[in-house]
Write a structure and sequence with these properties.
With about 210 residues, the chain is of the alpha/beta class. The protein contains six helices and nine strands. It has helices at about 30-35, 75-95, 110-120, 145-150, 170-180, 200-210; strands at about 5-10, 20-25, 45-50, 55, 60, 105-110, 125-130, 155-160, 185-190. β4 (about 55) and β5 form a beta hairpin. The protein starts with a strand and ends with a helix.
């Protein structure tokens, strides 16, 4: 599975140039989070992926969701395939640009669910991680690493108090989960639905730029 993506390259690229990977949510596309690029560090390579599966209204998804059945809120096989494809593409991108540093990652909703799983399963790849309006899904968190392997990771977690798609309580599980793992994280709630409001956006940008 070769994923499509769009890239913003800085003027100068060295082996120490940082990479930021963006993973959009269900029914969206690679242009969504990519719109944040104007406020992110100018010397980073920013890569925003398009999920492989088509949804209604010309959107895309990383795996099918049955909104009427909580037990089928995630198709595990499809989710695992998508994560493998993303990780393979990250390897290819780092090889292409001859990057030797760690990768930063940002995921919204369905993309955030995958972000939790990928960064905790392959922490040696990653540095700063933002999970927006998402939650840690136990069904794909089977091979997560221990405290020693993840202690360098930095998480920014945000959730809307009025989120009608992924309940706030699901998002709050992330704080408990990451605390038990011994991970470094910031968890913030915003007066918002399933999205990123202005204050959330400003805090997110500050996280990546500081």
């Amino acid at each position: 599975m070769d994923l499509q993506f769009i890239v913003r390259e800085p003027e100068n690229i060295t082996q120490n140039t940082q990479l930021l990977v963006m993973i959009h949510g269900y029914g969206s596309n690679e242009e969504d989070l990519f719109s944040f690029r104007h406020d992110l560090p100018e010397d980073w390579i920013i890569v925003s992926y398009r999920a492989p599966k088509m949804t209604d209204y010309n959107g895309f998804s990383w795996y099918d969701i049955d909104f009427n059945d909580a037990e089928k809120f995630i198709d595990v096989e499809q989710a695992v395939d998508s994560m493998k494809a993303i990780m393979k593409s990250i390897d290819n991108i780092k090889h292409h640009y001859q990057l030797e540093g760690k990768t930063n990652m940002m995921g919204f909703s369905q993309g955030g669910i995958l972000t939790y799983a990928m960064t905790l399963t392959y922490p040696e790849y990653f540095q700063k991680i933002a999970c927006l309006s998402a939650y840690p899904e136990p069904k794909i968190l089977k091979n997560i690493k221990g405290k020693k392997e993840i202690q360098h990771l930095r998480f920014f977690i945000s959730h809307g108090t009025e989120d009608a798609v992924i309940p706030l309580e699901w998002g709050r599980k992330a704080a408990d989960f990451l605390y038990e793992l011994g991970a470094f994280f910031t968890f913030r709630e915003y007066m918002n639905g399933h999205g990123v409001n202005q204050k959330n956006y400003m805090d997110l940008i500050k996280f990546f730029t500081s």
